[in-house]
From TrEMBL:
Keywords: GTP-binding, Magnesium, Metal-binding, Nucleotide-binding. It comes from Ladona fulva. It comes from the Eukaryota. One of its GO terms (biological process) is non-motile cilium assembly. InterPro entries: Ciliary_GTPase (IPR051995), P-loop_NTPase (IPR027417), Small_GTPase_ARF/SAR (IPR006689). GTP binds at residues 5-12, 51. This is Uncharacterized protein. One of its GO terms (cellular component) is ciliary membrane. The lineage of its organism: Eukaryota, Metazoa, Ecdysozoa, Arthropoda, Hexapoda. The keyword GTP-binding applies. Coiled coil: none annotated. PANTHER family: ADP-RIBOSYLATION FACTOR-LIKE PROTEIN 13B.
């Protein structure tokens, strides 16, 4: 599953929480990370792609390797400039 969203949307926190990892002190993802977990009897790999402007430009490079997408649309008033950037693109 590919997790996409703007920086600060909570992708890494959700991925770590689903896998049972502690979510205290989660730092922004630079590039990407993977999290493996079991859902019922199904092995799931979450591809957590960073949401910064540099990595957003190459998100499409990851589409061929996944079968499910999850787009996180958490709107944060803390960083309105990133929301404006995503709407413009």
């Amino acid at each position: 599953m590919l997790m996409l969203g703007l920086e600060g949307a909570g992708k890494t926190t959700i991925a770590k929480g689903l896998s049972g990892e502690l979510v205290n002190g989660v730092v922004p993802t630079i590039g990407f990370s993977t999290v493996s977990l079991m859902f019922k009897k199904l092995a799931v790999v979450l591809y957590d792609l960073g949401g910064g402007p540099g990595i957003r430009a190459i998100w499409d490079n990851y589409f061929a390797d996944v079968s499910t997408f999850s787009i996180l649309s958490c709107i944060s008033y803390v960083n309105q400039s990133s929301l404006t950037q995503s709407v413009v693109k």
